[in-house]
Amino acid sequence: MFRKRLLIWGLVAVVSFAAAVSAQAPQGGSIPGWAKSLDGVLKLNFDTAIPGHGNDPATKADLQALKAKMDSVTKNAIELVKKGTPKDQLAAAIQAADANATVGAMLQNNATRVDLFYEEISKLAK
Domain-by-domain residue ranges, the chain? Predict the structure, then answer.
């Protein structure tokens, strides 16, 4: 008999990158930190993940794609900060570097998230 392995991850995460970009920065969350958490989740043996928000279950491949997108945004942001991209231009520059990043509107509409994201990326860029 075939049995599916189910992961229920409550309020830990969502599957949508657009929602993940917020990463609860004002409460200490971060995109690079969330990607590290996903590293641990992806080591678990599961077929389907039930997110804390949203209606759709996710496959392991969905979470791998989410992590890859977070890693890409982080990598691009670090490179842009190293090149001297100012904070007020970072979201647009990330979006220009990766059309699939979808960070522009979310970061541009929340000054606290932009400040905290830029601060974290600046530390990683050193």
Answer: 6-124
